[in-house]
Amino acid sequence: MSRKLQESNINIEDDEDEGCDVNDDERCDENGEEECNVTALSLNKQKEAEVVVAVHGTKTKLWNTKLLSALRGAKEKLKPKIESVKRKLVPTVQAARTKMADLIQRTKTKVKSENTRKLIAIYFFVILLLSLCLGMAVYFTVYERHKDTGLECLSCTNVSCDVETKVCLHGCTAGWQGSRCDEGCSQSFHGPDCNLTCGHCSEDTHCDPVTGVCPDGCMAGYTTEHCNTPCPAGYHGTSCNQSCGQCKSPDTCNSVTGVCSQGCKDGYEGSHCNETCPLGWYGPECSQNVRPVSMDDCATSRVVNAKPEKSVTT
């Protein structure tokens, strides 16, 4: 650089010597030697500036070249690492994409399924609503057509009868019978259209024509409010409120009379098996007697062997 500056100084000095004589003789004559020196100095500074700029440009280019070279080297060094990272990341990215696609597909399927169920539910709800509306329309049409505001149809089911003939269209309510439902139930019958038979109510009473309940209890051998259930085993009489005797089996006790149809247990006698054997007698129906065990008892054995007469019970 100093060499270039020296060469440039020499050139400037040469120009100073020749400036007044060659390039501007007239101006040197007019202004004198001092102005020529100033001109030469300015030219020298300008060339120095050009040299500095040139040197700076050269250094800049040199630094740019070194920087590019360093960047290329760093790129070459980092290239294997980048490739390695890429090779490691590619499967992970692919797996993530696969999982994301699967999740999106499942979400779409779930949403589609839920929407389908909602549509089906709405569809059936609309059908149910339309059916209900249609049924109500038909019912009220028929009801208004056959509805009667008089007293003739009050015993008809749904209070519906023909306006002209007064005939009930759907039968009678409980306790009534006939085409116009204007006749009460006969004795021993009850319920809608009087088509149900009463139970075994007590004598001289009848069941309620609407509910079928016996108001004064049941006949002997039956129980419950409708008097249509026989007495349970071991009981008999009115409303089954009496216990049977010592029958051989509870099932052999007559639910009406309480008589044991197959005899009594050992030690009991009588038609109801509620009497114990007399002294000296035992066994079925008290048919066996006790024999004397000594001679002293012989005198009384006749009395013992003589079985007393059974009292007849009804």
From TrEMBL:
Listed transmembrane segments: 120-142
Domain of life according to the entry: Eukaryota
Stretch list, region Disordered: 1-22
UniProt xrefs under InterPro entries: MEGF10/SREC1/2-like (IPR042635)
Keyword Transmembrane: yes
Alphabetized GO MF terms: scavenger receptor activity
Acidic residues composition-biased segments: 12-22
Keywords on record: EGF-like domain, Membrane, Transmembrane, Transmembrane helix
PANTHER family: EGF-LIKE DOMAIN-CONTAINING PROTEIN (PTHR24043:SF8), SCAVENGER RECEPTOR CLASS F (PTHR24043)
Designated name of the protein: EGF-like domain-containing protein
Organism of provenance: Pomacea canaliculata
